[in-house]
Amino acid sequence: MTAYILRRLLYVLPIALGVTVLVFSLVHLAPGDPLNAVVAPDAPKEVVEQLKRDYGFDKPLPVQYFIWLGRTLTGDLGTSVATGRSVTEALRAAVPNTLVLAAGASLLGFTLGCLFGGIAGYYQGTWIDKLSTAIAITGVSIPHYWLGIVLVIVFAVELNTLPAMGMGPGGSSAWAWDIEHMKHLVLPVVTLSVIPMGIVTRTMRAAMAEILSQEFVQTLRAKGLRSYQVLAHVVKNAAPTVLAVLGLQLGYLMGGSILVETVFSWPGTGFLLNDAIFRRDIPLLQGTILVLAMFFVVLNLMVDILQSAIDPRMART
Amino acid sequence: MSQATETSAAMVDAAQVAAQSRGYWKTVWLRLRGDKVTIACFVVLALIVLSAVLADWLAPADPYKTSMLKRLKPIGTEGFPLGTDELGRDMLSRLLHGGRLSLFMGIVPVVYALVIGGALGLVAGFLGGRVNMLIMRTIDVLYAFPSVLLAVAISGSLGAGVTNAIVSLTVVFVPPIARVTESVTTQVRSLDFVDAARASGAGTFTIIRVHVLSNVLGPVFIYATSLISVSIILAAGLSFLGLGTEPPHPEWGLMLNTLRQSIYVSPWVAALPGVMIFFTSLSFNLMSDGLRSAMDVRL
What we know:
The structure holds two protein chains of two kinds. By secondary structure, chain A is mainly alpha-helical. Chain A has a single domain, classed as MetI-like (MetI-like fold), CATH 1.10.3720. Chain A is 76% helix and 0% strand. Chain A has helices spanning 2-29, 45-55, 61-73, 87-122, 127-141, 144-158, 179-212, 215-222, 227-256, 258-264, 269-279, 282-310, 313-316. The model of chain A has no long low-confidence stretch (mean pLDDT 83). Chain B has a single domain, classed as MetI-like fold, CATH 1.10.3720. Chain B is 76% helix and 0% strand. Chain B has helices at 3-33, 36-53, 55-58, 91-127, 129-143, 147-158, 162-189, 192-199, 204-240, 252-259, 267-294. In chain B, helix 4 (91-127) runs antiparallel to helix 9 (204-240), helix 8 crosses helix 9 (204-240) and helix 10 (252-259) runs antiparallel to helix 11 (267-294). Chain B is elongated and about 80 Å long. The model of chain B is unreliable at 1-7 (pLDDT under 50).
């Protein structure tokens, strides 16, 4: 097991480095000089040169990369060009908000997905199965940002029962466990949960169907086990696959919540990204993307390790 | 082995492949014909594509013509069957015209990614070893980003615009296509008929072209069609964030974005562009599933 964890770590390190290289090069994808956003177009040449030296843009690219990487590793993600605030500070405020949203959506989507997928896989070919499959395909085909808008129209505009925007009363930007914050959470979580719901339903159905067709299930039945006892065995065997999907989905939701956060003005990382895009604030864009991607990488690693803890066969391949 | 035998061997092979494939395609056609859902999706998609192509003739009004007096009319208004938007433009005409960019931005990245990712996966899978390592580990880095995030990262850095959105979505879809192509190619490569072809003297290029490609193309193509649904949602999503098309061009994602401001005045008109995105994406998804089971592809 330890050997497996070490091997996984060795495999993840180059990927993490690759991610930093990619995020670093985003600055150079941007059209024009990286200083364009801070320098007035008519600034004197000496000032521009001085700024270039201050920001380190006069050095060769690889040197710039290692300086940037060194700073990043110490937790300094630079300063926002637009606001002059520290990117790390901005992220410290935003990441927990996105995490609340993503965790809520994963939990809801996962519970519903397991339920639908499990039932569909167990009663294959019946109308329940067809209904579940239809729900699953709707979940993966629906543009979730549009679903968010429709939910706002129904529950905020027409029925006026749930808030349409923000995270709490008075533009609150820090999560609290009270009824008002919970009310604000409902629509964004439901919106974001349709994707994992669809995917988990599909995975769970396929896993159930596959396991039910295996011989050991027949043996269990032949031994005279009751159907719920057989089900317990099947669920245990389906767990690793479904767990892997859950882990991936949580990561996807963290990174993919930008559209839903935009619809609901949720003050999380998606909101930061939106701000960064709108103001062409590349350091903020870079920092946010780096943190979200690293989160995804670490989550994947944890899922792999957890998976092999449940099912030791995985560690041997 | 002489040149002549090699060509004749290849010809015999090609003839056999052709004879088999005729039977195969007939089976596929018969299966498709019995699948009502897939047929319905074909029809819906054909209608959506046709209405976008023929928008100039079908649209009752000019999609760019604004009118301050006729702003935000509800659905069913006289002369405006689907209402008007925040600048008084006819919604039906804008939805018809909007399909052009939305479909274009959704389908083109998958086609590009199919070519690039397919080529990378084919090379990696066929050559194996170090080349495989190099290509697939590089691709793993792109896999470290959730797809929406990667699209936003690249698009956000490049700036708004249709071309930039297409570039970023292509980058998003190259890794999954390359991975699927690589795994299918690796399986095919180890099959007996490839060894037989090599033993009969076929060169690497001929083996790839005649034996590997014909077996890899089907599954990879089916996989790519399943990505179009995601691509349409993502492309409209980028426009929704202001990263795709720029106003005043009609595009479903951008229309959703601009109409969002008027959601309290004219709620249901604001939801219309999303209906189009949803139906297009759903039809592509169901069609892809239907094709997959008709062609009996397992991925």
